[in-house]
Amino acid sequence: MLSVDPHMDYDEPLFFQVMKYAARADRDVVDMVSGNPDWEPPEALRRGLREYADADADQFQYPASEGLRALREEIAARRNVDVSQVVVTNGAGEANYLAMARALERDAGSEVLLTDPVYPYYPGKAKMLGGDATFVAVDRDGSPDVAAMREAASEETACIVANTPNNPTGAVYSRETMAALVEIAEEHDALLVADEVYDHFDFSGRFESALTIDSEHRVVTTAFSKSMAITGFRVGYAVFPESLVDAAKTRHMLVNVAGSRPAQVAVLEALRETDPAYYEATRELLTDRIDAFTDALDAAGAEYERPDGAFYVMARFEGFPGTLDNVERLIDEAGVAGMPGDAFGERYDDWLRFALVTPRATEAADRLADYFG
Amino acid sequence: MLSVDPHMDYDEPLFFQVMKYAARADRDVVDMVSGNPDWEPPEALRRGLREYADADADQFQYPASEGLRALREEIAARRNVDVSQVVVTNGAGEANYLAMARALERDAGSEVLLTDPVYPYYPGKAKMLGGDATFVAVDRDGSPDVAAMREAASEETACIVANTPNNPTGAVYSRETMAALVEIAEEHDALLVADEVYDHFDFSGRFESALTIDSEHRVVTTAFSKSMAITGFRVGYAVFPESLVDAAKTRHMLVNVAGSRPAQVAVLEALRETDPAYYEATRELLTDRIDAFTDALDAAGAEYERPDGAFYVMARFEGFPGTLDNVERLIDEAGVAGMPGDAFGERYDDWLRFALVTPRATEAADRLADYFG
Of A46, A57, A258, which has the smallest distance from its Cβ to B54's Cβ? Predict the structure, then answer.
């Protein structure tokens, strides 16, 4: 169990620094830094936005604070939850903020239990909310080490955050793991926050939403940002237990009043009218990229775990630890920009993270194979 | 000086209750409850949205966290501030939240000094952020009582919030008042938050932005919600002093990641391409409504102050105090729905607030004149 603070400078997050360095480089560089999908959003989303542009002026006024009723009903029906439990948020970012705030506001401790490696926003939010982050190293496959999490949890634990499919490890947590984490949360009067923003990117066929685990100590957060390739629209949601949802809605109202209505309208249209084939096609696209990329990693003699979900690959190259210096060297000498592993904690500080959301993923793979091979 | 908590049930704000009652009424009712503009947004806004619907997919991804650069530059140029000081937010709601959070996070006290009457979100935000609200009754004309504010301020004061043009009083604070409030903030190491969301609705010709008062203790917040008739788009901004802006950007990033991009793009187009005549026309529309409404108040023998700004009128009818009961009676017996004054504090708990953002304002005025006259 670690108790460290990963590299996180929010005024200029590390990934901005890396992208700036890549932009200034004296050569062509493939950007594998950021997590922005590079494919087309659903056509229905564009249509929804186009139609909305000509809507009556009263459609341009405040939506309900908790989200457009029709959108919440569509979500509730698809997720098999009561509509009252659904809060539409400004992306998964706000959903996680609301869930973590709720966890820390119950006078049930101030500790936030996180994995190492971790998506850096979680410890940032924990700190802002007055919580103390504790990091527990993941298993070799990138899944939580349940025994170590259980060991680390105590009466001080207010919140456990689990991101599955996982950024950065690519692990898809098993149902047993998630059930165990919910159980740990229940034992210590904590909340398990399941961030499932990559839920549409499961290549293992094993992903199961934590919504299937019934508990007053479980909050599920997600967004349409990745699944519809619209990270800039900021439409996500949280599903809270009935006992917690009112307080979460109050905070949402006091912070944001409501989410942006044009984006909600467009997402609703896309949710209703997009064929499952759209999501299937992006999964196939990513599977092909994973194949090509991991073939190249094999050729380069790298250590890696083939991702079961999300769209990142962690890789370790012999004698080439994942420092910022080495990330910059790889930009200059191989023309590939990744993220230093220590941006996510200590567990993978020898590693590099590559995001596969670029049409040039195969080209980058060839460059890495040439450089390290 | 009062130290009370105005009626504020955020799970179902009072105005929802009143609107529901009005909707259930057994007769036609003019809604003068909510603050949603009833006129057309700028045509350029619709065009901006229409064009964006067909933009390249990369335009659908994360904007910069602090807002689209072009939008921030347009704002900075118009407001004569450095672009680095501008944070684009999810409406004025988030701008006020960020400003008040900054004020309360400096270890400079926990008191938030507010006027009575007050826009109910301010004490709600103060409480959520761990602050203690103190209410100071306004002058007869609805402006802050500067002497009483000075008297109330102490080393415990972290924040003073001033909304001008004011909701609900309609007062436009004088430059001297604003300068005095900034001075009080400086004396006690507090922040003066000037919420200027009604800045385009000044009928007095005397409104001057607090941006003209140079101070490290002054934050200006506003939004395009009212001026462009797009309360549902959620695009606003805060202008922070250089010394405070980085911390505010960090909180914005940790809460929301970024604001919604379609809305920002549409607002940018509207900001660039909308003729001043658009704003002038809405002011004329509102001036006509104020004329008709105050004529009717005269006929009804009501006490009121003609609003210098914003779009609300506070009125007191002899023997008819502004309780929720009387609001409901007015709905049933006169067919006009207003807000009870005690929703805003104690100073005007005998009064009713009427929002003039309905094409039926004149009809409502006639009904009131008939009922009370």
Answer: A46
